[in-house]
From TrEMBL:
Domain of life: Bacteria
Origin organism lineage: Bacteria, Bacillati, Actinomycetota, Actinomycetes, Micrococcales
Organism encoding this protein: Nesterenkonia massiliensis
EC top class named in words: transferase
Protein name: Branched-chain-amino-acid aminotransferase
Classification via InterPro entries: Aminotrans_IV (IPR001544), Aminotrans_IV_CS (IPR018300), Aminotransferase-like (IPR036038), B_amino_transII (IPR005786), BCAT-like_C (IPR043132), BCAT-like_N (IPR043131), BCAT_family (IPR033939)
Catalytic activity: L-isoleucine + 2-oxoglutarate = (S)-3-methyl-2-oxopentanoate + L-glutamate; L-valine + 2-oxoglutarate = 3-methyl-2-oxobutanoate + L-glutamate; L-leucine + 2-oxoglutarate = 4-methyl-2-oxopentanoate + L-glutamate
SUPFAM superfamilies: D-aminoacid aminotransferase-like PLP-dependent enzymes (SSF56752)
Pathway participation: Amino-acid biosynthesis; L-valine biosynthesis; L-valine from pyruvate: step 4/4; Amino-acid biosynthesis; L-leucine biosynthesis; L-leucine from 3-methyl-2-oxobutanoate: step 4/4; Amino-acid biosynthesis; L-isoleucine biosynthesis; L-isoleucine from 2-oxobutanoate: step 4/4
Length: 357
């Protein structure tokens, strides 16, 4: 599909971009342009375009405002040594977005069009891609219902967009183990619900628990499955792994209540490449606590597009603290290899990279 281009009338100066890239933070600064494709039940996908980044005009009765008719993805674009820009497994993100679309009664988007929308935006705003280690241009494709109506049914008009934001370390500053709060008051998802879809409502529902975590001095919250003996599920926006003293990686199995992370599946593959055993199964919080106490579970880490791979140092469950005693050697090795592949410093054995610009 051909993207028509409307140039930004007042693009950000090179000096200002350089200033932003000195300390990009996460999700606070945005590039000059956005890609847009509209959909209607009658005409399908149409009117692909690049336009200046700016406010969106919506009817007050738009579906997304009343019925949370919305899904999104998260990806990163990395600057390589030769000046080219690559992203990581974009067709996996496209497939996941379509899975979310099916669950949320939104239209599926052609995977090639999804990837093309990333290519044209990054080519236009390439100057915004950071060059420092661990930094990237965060890409946020999203889709939402725009039809003005107050009846509960799928929206007959939809807009798909991509915005981009230079990003540093998700948890800020130097990489160090984070502290996690166990939520006993809230659950993230239920069987048959929307837990496996990447939709904004799941994240809105996690914010009260995240606020509790912040009050306890924690950087993230862990959700449990009370229907299965408090099996661990995922963090507010990340999957979780445990590492045993005999080199096994444990991670919650995908039961329909957990988001299937692209980083999660990549870590599983890289671990198997190293000869590690990976077990995808229900893992109870009690098993984690007992394993940390007797030394059979030595490391824990969170993973996701934004956080990449981040070690978990402590888990706070009310008055109980679960402390990881390992040196995070496995965690850091997997992080280094994953980032190495993404930035072009390590061989891409699985063909995961895709050139954007």
């Amino acid at each position: 599909m051909k993207f028509e281009v409307t140039e930004h009338p007042n693009p950000t100066s090179g000096e200002r971009i350089a200033e932003i890239l000195q300390n990009p933070g996460f999700g606070t600064n945005f590039t000059d342009h956005t890609t847009v494709v509209d959909w209607s039940a009658d005409a399908g996908w149409q009117d692909a375009r690049i336009e200046p980044y700016g406010p969106i005009t919506l009817d007050p009765a738009a579906s997304v405002l009343h019925y949370a008719s919305e899904i999104f993805e998260g990806m990163k674009a990395y600057l390589h040594a030769d000046g080219s820009v690559y992203t990581f497994r974009p067709f996996a993100n496209a497939a996941r977005m379509n899975a979310s679309a099916r669950r949320m009664a939104l239209p599926e988007i052609d995977e090639e069009l999804f990837v093309q929308s990333l290519e044209v935006l990054v080519a236009k705003d390439k100057a915004w891609v950071p060059a420092s280690d661990g930094e990237a241009l965060y890409l946020r494709p999203f889709m939402f219902g725009t039809e003005a109506f107050l009846g509960v049914r799928p929206s007959q008009t939809v807009t798909y967009r991509v915005i981009a934001s230079p990003a540093g370390n998700f948890f800020g500053g130097e990489l160090k183990p984070v502290k996690i709060w166990v939520s006993r008051d809230y659950v993230r998802a239920a069987p048959g619900g929307t837990g496996a879809a990447k939709t904004g409502g799941n994240y809105a529902g996690s914010l009260a628990a995240q606020a509790q975590a912040a009050e306890k001095g924690c950087q993230q919250v862990l959700f449990l499955d009370p229907l299965h003996e408090n099996a661990i599920e995922e963090l507010g926006g990340m999957n979780v792994f445990l590492v045993t003293n005999d080199g096994c990686l444990l991670t919650p199995e995908l039961t329909g209540t957990i988001l299937e992370g692209v980083t999660r599946s990549s870590i599983i593959q890289l671990a198997k490449d190293r000869g590690l055993t990976v077990e995808e199964r229900r893992v109870g919080l009690e098993e984690w606590a007992k394993g940390a106490a007797d030394g059979t579970i030595v490391e824990a880490f969170a993973c996701g597009t934004a956080a990449v791979v981040t070690p978990i140092g402590e888990l706070l469950d009310g008055d109980q603290t679960i402390t990881m005693t390992g040196d995070f050697s496995t965690t850091l090795a997997l992080r280094e290899e994953l980032l190495g592949i993404q930035t072009g410093k390590v061989e891409d054995r699985h063909g995961w990279l895709h050139k954007l610009a």
